[in-house]
Amino acid sequence: MSGGRTTKPCPGCGKVDRFRKPDEVCRDCKEALVEAARYRKLAQERTAAGEAYVRYGAAVHWNKTVHVHGVDTDPVNLALFDLAQAVVVRSEWQGKNSQLLLGEYHYDVRWVYGNCPVPVAEAIIRLHKTLQPLLDATYNAGVLRGADLLRRLNAGELSPVEFAEAKEKCRK
Ligand SMILES: [Zn+2]
Fold first, then answer.
1. Which residue of 107, 126, 156, 169 shows the fewest CB atoms closer than 10 Å?
2. Gap from CA of 11 to ligand 1 centroid (Å)
3. Cα of 111 to ligand 1 centre, how many Å?
């Protein structure tokens, strides 16, 4: 190969790097490849050592699977996201067979890939799955209690003042 240079766009990123050799990618892409190889090695080593290989959505809203009608669960979703970020050693390597730590399939999800100890991954997955039915049950219990208060008000078992007091209590 001649030591020539090319002004054609880099096949990796499309940028023109006038120092690029015709049979190579640009310096930025070379660095990115080295970095990717390092991430892959890190993920493979940790997975081989028995750690879980996991992924979760790269932003809170891609992990927003905990929801209850009429209740703001943003803090719950943010807490789960922060937890994932705190325990997962990111690899950025999109290997096969990653476990879904948080999130759900959606066409535009960007995933974070990484490793964490198996018991930690299992605990987060269990926590995530447990929260939804718990929040649903809490919401449904509130609806039933409200319906019961209305029935008692209507039946004259509850004065309008008592009804207002009971309602006020629910705000706290
Ligand atoms: Zn490039």
1. 107
2. 6
3. 23
